[in-house]
Specification:
13% of the residues are buried. The protein is rod-shaped and about 90 Å long. It is built from 2 helices and 9 strands, in the order αβββββββββα. The chain has 2 domains: 107 residues, Immunoglobulins (Immunoglobulin-like, Sandwich); 33 residues. By secondary structure, it is of the alpha+beta class. A hairpin with a 2-residue loop joins strand 8 and strand 9.
């Protein structure tokens, strides 16, 4: 009895795995970003890989990338290649460059990267965090030094004026 059960179970396994493999090979196109979140200092550039995978037996004659969600000022963005052909079961890597200009100021931006072409439309989100180019302790230390010098000059300046009058 046990032998029959083992034989029945082993005969079903190839069929289950065959169905699973068929589903994997016919998956929908997808767009992933690596990394999906970046931290940029003002004045620096971050590079993100946009990976477009076509898991269908369909060729898209022209697929174009679009970047949405960045403010009108403060960022310079580019993606290479801008448009390309996507063959059946092919994966394409695009390079997305994001530069934070001084107008960006410290902020968080969620951008949308979209790949469209024919019946294809996939998207992925990119979280960009902009931080100051200098450490925050530097301006505060400069203010502290200024207040100290001002205080000392006022204190010792008044003492000298008082001594001359005597």
């Amino acid at each position: 009895m046990l032998t029959i059960a083992v034989l029945l179970m082993s005969s079903f396994q190839p069929a289950v795995f065959a169905n699973g493999a068929k589903q994997v090979s016919q998956s929908k196109p997808s767009l992933t970003l690596e990394p999906s979140a970046v931290v940029i200092k003002v004045g620096d550039t971050a590079t993100v890989s946009a990976i477009l995978a076509n898991g269908q037996n369909t060729t898209f004659s022209q697929v174009c990338f679009n970047i949405e969600g960045f403010p009108a000022t403060g960022f310079i963005t580019s993606i290479t290649p801008q448009c390309t052909t996507l063959q059946s079961f092919e994966t394409i890597n695009a390079s997305l460059n994001v530069t934070a200009t001084p107008a960006a100021a410290p902020q968080n931006v969620t951008a949308l990267i979209v790949a469209t072409g024919g019946a294809l439309s996939v998207q992925a989100f990119l979280l960009v965090t902009v931080v100051p180019a200098i450490s925050p302790w530097i301006p505060w230390s400069m203010i502290g030094v200024f207040v100290t010098i001002l205080g000392l000059s006022l204190f010792y300046g008044n003492r000298r004026k008082g001594r001359k009058k005597r």
